[in-house]
Amino acid sequence: MMIQFFNREKGSVEVEKVYGDGAIEWLYNSFMGRMFCNLLIKRFISKWYGYYQNTRWSHRKITPFLSTFQISLSEYLPEDGGTVETPYSSFNSFFSRRFKPDIRKISDVEGEMPAFAEGRYFGHRELAADLTIPVKGEFLTVTRLLADERWTPLFAGGPVLIARLCPVDYHRFHFPDDGRFMDHYRIPGQFHSVNPLALKKKPDIFITNERHVTILDTVHFGKLAYIEVGALCVGKIVQTFAQKYFRRGEEKGYFLFGASTVIVVGQKGRWFPTHDILENTEKGLETLVKLGARVAVKN
C-alpha cells in the first residue's frame, strides 16, 4: 500500500517513506504476522523496547536513520550535555529532540489555531455518529474516543483534528491556545501501529489503543479534548507541563520511540479545520503541516 499525503509548504502530493513498512505489512497482512502482533501490542513489550531505546547501544541506529530519511539536524538542539560529534546519547534522546528557538513560528492570530504538532493532519467539521476515519470501516465516535460520560455531551458533534506523527517527525506536542487544565486521565489499551497500513486492516485503533486525555479550557476556542494516542513500541508518553495555566505554543509533552497521534476535539460550532485540510481529508489525503502553522479557524 502506497501512502500519499499533501505537503502544504511545497503545494504538492508526495509519497511517504515508511519506517519499517515491510514489518508492518507482515504484521497486519499475514497469519503469522498477526499472531506475532498480538504479542507486540502488549504494554510490557512497548515498555521493554522503550527501555532499550534509552540505552547507549541504541545510539548506533541514529546515523543510518538520518541517512535513510534524509533528516538534517540543523533545525534541532542537541540533548543536554551533547557534543558536536555526539549530539544524542541514545535513539530516544534523538527521537525526542527539540527544535532550536524560533525555528518554527507559532501563529499568534487570535482566531487561528496553530498546529499543536508537526505532522500529517486529517480534519472534520463534526465528529458525527456516522463519521468513519479515512479508511474503510470503523465509526469514530466521541463516546468511544473519550470513554468518559462526564465529557462526552460537551464534545458531541464537535470538530476534530487528527495529527499523525511518523517516526521521522518532531515528536513533541504543544498547546494550541492560552488556557487552563480542567481534567486529565489515562485510558488503558493496546499498542497497535497508527500507520495507515495498520489502520486499513484494523480501523478501530484510535479507540482501542492506550490514550491520554486532557480537557482544556482555552481562551479563543472553548473547551478542547486533547488526546495522545499510544502506538506500537511507544515506550512512553511524557507530560512535561505540570501547571494549571498554559500559553499558546508551550510544550505539553512528547512521545518516546514509535510513531503516534494527537487528536483534538472541540465543542460544536466553536471552530473548524482549515479548508485545505477539509478538502484533502475528503480525498483521503493527510495534509503535512509544520508546527505552529494554521490548522483551524474560529467560527
Could you characterize the architecture of this molecule?
The chain has one domain. It is an alpha+beta fold and about 300 residues long. The protein contains ten helices and 16 strands. The mean pLDDT is about 80. The strands form three sheets. A ten-stranded mixed beta sheet has the order 2-1-15-4-5-13-9-8-7-11. It has a three-stranded antiparallel beta sheet with strand order 3-16-14. Strands 6-12-10 form a three-stranded antiparallel beta sheet, with no helix packed on it. It is globular, with a radius of gyration of 18 Å. Strand 1 and strand 2 form a beta hairpin.
Which descriptors apply to this entry?
single chain, 299 residues, alpha+beta, ten-stranded mixed beta sheet, three-stranded antiparallel beta sheet, 10 helices, 27% strand
